[in-house]
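ok trying this again, last paste got cut off
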Amino acid sequence: MQIRGAVVVVTGAAGGIGAALARRFAAEGARGLLLADLDASRVEDLALELDRDGCHTVGVGSDVSRESDVRALVETAEKHLGPVDLFCSNAGIGSGAGIEASNEVWQACWDVNVMAHVYAARAVLPGMLKRGRGYLLHTASAAGLLQMPGDAAYTATKHAAVAFAESLAVTYGDRGIKVSALCPQGVRTGMTENPAVEAVLSAFGDMLTAEQVADAVIQGLAEERFLILPHPEVARYEQGRAADRDGWLEGLRHTVAKLPPEALGAAETAAEVTPA
């Protein structure tokens, strides 16, 4: 997958990883970008910035938990930019709680962290299959391979997001459709600036900038790897989990037990503990 000359859609593009991806895609020579986010004002400002820099960019307010919104943003991209070559389903939220989170919070996590990927695939796959090519990038999380202590809904739905991406890769991989799951650990964004949040994330590895994640995405897309791991150690953690699940769970419990309660509580309030 080469970005130069491609039409790309990025959801959750107002900040964090989404904005970093948008800027990097523009720098790589994308022919057109459709940027979507709940925060219409911020994403429209970013679109104006990138459009002035020479990449035809459109920004739209969109709620990716609604299938009609996802279909509309794809239609907008096709109308103004052309057929979508790469759809980056990047929006994501956390619950900030365990099983005590309300049913509404659990449903919101399911709608944004899982169903938004489903809606994106439904919207772009028919055209991609007709052309015999296309790429889907799903921002999941290291939590989708491992765990995010303190956020049950986030962990469960990110696991589902990875599984859905695998299903797409199995079903459509021989028909010209490529799929990648982006699974970072801690990333420095506006929602992880709290020192307590940083302390929790740092316990599991180095925190990266959103720009470093975007670098990893460019490399991963070029190599057409299913798992894009900006933190390479995640692969080792996942292997350890598979080899000795009980030992891995015990080790994780010990790590969590060393964290101050107030730090874990602060981390639980961050919607982008492993940003999406």
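PB: full thing came through this time. Residues 266-276 have pLDDT under 50 and may be disordered.
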